[in-house]
Amino acid sequence: MGTAKKIMHGGQILANALVRQGVDVAFGVPGESFLPLLDGLVDHPEFRFITCRQEGGAAYMGEAYAKLTGKPGVVMVTRGPGASNAMVGIHTAYQDSTPMVLLVGQVGTDMVEREAFQEVDYRRMFSECAKWVGSIDRVDRIDEFVSHAFHIAQSGRKGPVVLALPEDILYLNAEEKPTAAAHVVQPGLDQSIFTEAMKQFANAKNPMVLAGGGNWNANACNQLIAWANREGVPVATSFRSQDLIDNQNACYAGDLGIAANPALVKRIQEADVLLVIGERLGEMTTAGYSVLTPPKAANTLIHVLSSPDELGRVYRPEFALSCSPENFCAALDNVKMANAYRTERMLEAHTEYLAWSSPVTVSGNLQLAHIMASLPSSIPRDAIITNGAGNFATWVHRFYPYGSIRSQLAPTNGSMGYGLPAAIAAKIADPKRVVIAVCGDGDFMMNCQELATAARYEAYPIVLVVNNSMLGTIRMHQEREFTKRVMGTGLTNPDFVKFADSFGIPGYRVSNTEEFAPAFAKALESKRGALIELVLDPEVITPTKLLSKLGK
């Protein structure tokens, strides 16, 4: 007699399929539309479902978890409003090339196209910010769809995938069809193009490397660093990719972020051969496509990307290589710079970075640049720094020297509210590491409710809230474009110290630079993290500009 078939409901089949993909953590907000999935996860006691307080926070946590671990971030939300809230994290994952799988409850198949309660067409909704959107409309195809989703999320240019879960399908019974974990498919190296491209690079007088984007791992970073130091080649990083190269390493030339070092911009523009690895050359990295002029940059451009669809999209390179950073960097060991090349250029570029990142002094009692520059003296080099969006981030990006890969979690799509959820996800993924969220007051308040998630799961980061009682970036642009005509950018904030205390988290208010060190020392000793409010004079709108002077 044959073995009896094991019949189970769709939620159990889906839960088992996720576990076989190596998923052991998911972030989300429970909803009645996917109750059978939650029921199926009960049979996997090792599986952690992190209950968040809003789907946007959950999606950010899933995205940050994926950035940090290299595994696809899994998020579970309910239909309609839940999916709408989660959109912000999917857009972040798409522009940041982060592997992610969003599981969304959906109305039953018998109610589709009736504008049923909370019904949304997810294929239309997510079509511009997901690699693929699918709907599991048959219980006997759950394993197939899960395998497909995890393959797509991790292939080529990594990114988010959305799977809709019609409620009735999850309740139906069927036999599961166990499928092994997805392959991670990355493009290899075209050796002939590589040889010709790197021949030109090796003979360049002023070569530069620009590294950035997603799809990197520690192995690729280490290979690039070792080769750059051996051959004396300066390496810059793109917007919010600063942790690809230890900023204290001699080959590091700085980052092409917002308000980049003018000396670095000049070096990039004067490079006769520019090797770009993993970076799309988007708007933020190129300062509105002005650092390099499309469609043909003045440099000889060697462009290496995991996705062939992005090559030639804005800039037409001389050499286009659809290749993962890891496969490309592994081949660099055989590349030797010509004898005429001067390795002193690498050290000159690093010296320029050090000068640019030296803290500056502005008016007011709180010197934020000095605070950011002081952090490395009291935290490990592998500490994780997270942030969302706002002018406050300029200080951390410019004056804090990031450590090795996965020590920076920040959204390249410039999404506010990211820093706190990302820090909580980091503490869940790696609780022993020091995690610091740097937030603006407007930025922090967009997801401040996730402190409840930190408290529930004892995942406590240190949170620095830079408080200037305004939406600083927008106010800055207002003053530049419409002097003294201010609308909508002022903020009324809670007492941040009391707010933190309500979750059992120590809170400190710092108004003078000298007050920061003792407060931060207490935060490092705390077992429940801390929130440190940094009261910044509203006049100090950037590290070098005063608000009242912008329109003059």
CATH class of the largest domain: Alpha Beta
Q: How large is the radius of gyration?
A: 24 Å
* Straight-line N-to-C gap: 89 Å
Q: In the CATH scheme, what's the topology name of the largest domain?
A: Rossmann fold
Number of E strands: 20
**The biggest beta sheet, please?**
6 strands, parallel
Strand order of the largest sheet: 3-2-4-5-7-6
Helix fraction by DSSP (H/I, runs of at least 4): 25-40%
Percent of residues in beta strands: 15-25%
Shape: globular
What is the level-2 CATH architecture name of the largest domain? Answer: 3-Layer(aba) Sandwich
Mean pLDDT: 95
- Tally the structural domains: 3
Structural class: alpha/beta
Account of the protein in words:
It is a single chain. With 552 residues, this protein is an alpha/beta fold. The chain has 3 domains: 7-175, Thiamin diphosphate (ThDP)-binding fold, Pyr/PP domains (Rossmann fold), CATH 3.40.50.970; 191-354, TPP-binding domain (Rossmann fold); 358-549, Thiamin diphosphate (ThDP)-binding fold, Pyr/PP domains (Rossmann fold). It is 35% helix and 17% strand. The chain has helices at 10-20, 35-41, 55-69, 81-95, 122-125, 142-154, 167-171, 191-202, 218-231, 262-270, 325-330, 344-357, 368-374, 392-399, 419-429, 441-445, 451-456, 472-481, 496-501, 513-525, and strands spanning 7-9, 25-28, 48-51, 73-77, 100-106, 132-135, 160-166, 173-175, 207-211, 235-238, 252-256, 273-277, 300-305, 319-322, 384-387, 408-409, 435-440, 462-467, 507-510, 530-535. It has a 6-stranded parallel beta sheet with strand order 3-2-4-5-7-6, sandwiched between helices. A 6-stranded parallel beta sheet has the order 11-10-9-12-13-14, with helices on both faces. Strands 16-15-17-18-20-19 form a 6-stranded parallel beta sheet, sandwiched between helices. Strand 19 (507-510), helix 20 (513-525) and strand 20 form a beta-alpha-beta unit. It starts with 6 loop residues before the first strand and ends in a 17-residue tail after the last strand. The mean pLDDT is 95.
